[in-house]
Amino acid sequence: MHSRSTLLPYVVQAGNPQSISLVLSIDCKPSLSYLARSRQGKTALLAAIDLGDVDTALKLIDRGGQQINLRDIGLGWRPLTLAVVRNQEEIVKGLITKKVSDVNGYEDSKYHGAPLILAARSGRYRLVEILLTIKKLDRRVADRKLRTALDLAVIAGCWRTVHALLDDPFERDCFATYGHNPMFHAIASGNVNIVESLIQKNFAVIPPYLGKALQSGKEAVVRALLTGQAQLASAQWLARKALACAAEGGLLHFVETLLPGADSAERHEALLCAVEKNHWGVARLILDDDRAREADTIFSEYPFASWYLLMARNNGEACDGADFDFKSYCFCLAEREF
């Protein structure tokens, strides 16, 4: 067996283009070893990617072999992951063309993250688009905190990366793949554009998320959720929960906004939530909305309202946060009913 030269990684690390071209072009004796490592644990390909030497990296990739799959001993990354970290689009394309073995980076994720995770986290939407051309790429791969690529893109607020993931050519049902978390993160960040994009892809909104949107105080997000859900089966049920969530959180502004379009059942549920949480300003707003009507109408629409108000009168602690006029008003209503 003939010995192979371990010179190549050091020539590449030296960064002299003429020397690199010369070594790669001549027929060396002994022949070059593309799998040889430098003292830093890098092969020639890893050294070229790390230095950003695209031309040399592409030449080495074109020669194929196991070098395209060998991990950097120091960093723990394979060439594909390192190319993503260094934002080298042409190198990523070249490696994908040569069909690297571990496109999902399961082993790399033990160190710093899989290629798709790293690209989405940093907002590099072009790299995300390139990676999504791989059919066998695992879209569900997650980081140590169990956040997927879409979760990280939403958290980063990168609208283009989010769209790249939602427009994945090999993924028909994004909600089935990514679950509820992306919508949760979008609501938490208050990014209306991303919320609307997720709704268009049929990402569901559940009451706890609507409550979080109400508590955030971002009216545009709340409107986007309620408007977007009109196309879904749960629209009416979700709209009913909106007023109750706002009342339970003591969000006077949103209660005032949602109250005109609410029916008696919705108002009743909101009133109970407000009284139970001692949000007397909200409760008074709901009751004052019916002052023009007869008192009997109030109790016919809110069959349990008088019971809650009487309970509040008998509970000194519950009344501590209320002003005197409103307590008197509540007592009058309760006494008239009983």
UniProtKB/TrEMBL annotation:
Provide the organism lineage as a comma list. Answer: Eukaryota, Fungi, Dikarya, Ascomycota, Pezizomycotina
The name of this protein is Ankyrin repeat protein
Matches recorded under SUPFAM superfamilies? Ankyrin repeat (SSF48403)
Methyltransferase recorded as keyword: no
From which domain of life does this come? Answer: Eukaryota
Cite the repeat ranges for ANK. Answer: 40-73
What InterPro entries does the entry give? Ankyrin_rpt, Ankyrin_rpt-contain_sf
Work out whether the entry's keyword set contains Repeat.
yes
Origin organism is: Akanthomyces muscarius (Entomopathogenic fungus)
Keywords for the protein's UniProt record, in alphabetical order:
ANK repeat, Repeat
Q: Which residues span the membrane?
A: none
One Pfam family per UniProt: Ank_2
**PANTHER family documented for this protein:** ANKYRIN REPEAT AND PROTEIN KINASE DOMAIN-CONTAINING PROTEIN, ANKYRIN REPEAT-CONTAINING PROTEIN-RELATED
